[in-house]
Amino acid sequence: MKLLFAVCAALAVMPRQAQAEADKTPPFDTPGFLAECTNRIPNVAMQIPMNQLCVSAARQLCDLSTGGQGASQCLSTVTEWLETDITRIRSSFPDAAEMVEKPSGMSPLPMGAAQAIDCSQLKVPNVSSEGGCSYQEAVSRWLKFRVVELSSQPRED
């Protein structure tokens, strides 16, 4: 009888625990999507818009998965992934930081690529100005590092 009671009690608690665990996990795998999407982009002339589309789509899909209630969290998750990927690229390409910060005539980056972003007028609904600015700066830096990374691969024109 005690065993039956214990099993019934466990079954009654399990759905609540499963729901609590589901609430802790994000409804959309933003980092996984970003990794898969960006890994599929080759070294082609349109790599920058293609990478931008991956980042934008990840942010939008994350926000959709939260019913529009997680814009700030989604932006933060994407920003964190971008910063982590910048670190990955830096470790793989030690000269990347120099190329990104001081573009020269030999750099694969366009002139003026090292300019700072002005976030003073940036306004994103349901997101703090600091969060929006951090995201914008991370996207800009990451795209530059991605150009350096992809330019090390053979061109697929």
Summarize the structure.
With 157 residues, this protein is an all-alpha fold. It has helices spanning 2-24, 30-39, 47-65, 71-92, 96-101, 129-151. The longest helix has 23 residues, at 2-24.
Question: Could you walk me through the main structural features you see in this protein, from its secondary elements to its overall organization?
Answer:
The structure is a single chain. The chain is 66% helix and 0% strand. The chain is an all-alpha fold and 157 residues long. The longest helix has 23 residues, at 2-24. The termini are far apart. The model is unreliable at 3-22 (pLDDT under 50).
Keywords, separated by commas or semicolons:
mainly alpha, disordered N terminus, 157 residues
Would you spell out the secondary-structure blueprint of this structure?
Elements: H1 2-24, H2 30-39, H3 47-65, H4 71-92, H5 96-101, H6 129-151
Helix pairs in contact: 2-3, 3-4, 3-6, 4-6
Quick one: overall form?
globular
Q: Averaging pLDDT over every residue, what do you get? A: 77
Q: Taking Cα atoms only, what radius of gyration do you get, to the nearest Å?
A: 21 Å
Oligomer: single chain
Helical content stands at 55-70%
Number of helices: 6
The largest β sheet comes out as: none
Beta-strand share of residues: under 5%
List SSEs in N-to-C order. Answer: HHHHHH
pLDDT below 50 for ≥5 consecutive residues: which ranges?
3-22
Q: How many beta-strand runs?
A: 0
Distance separating the two termini: 73 Å
Structural class: mainly alpha
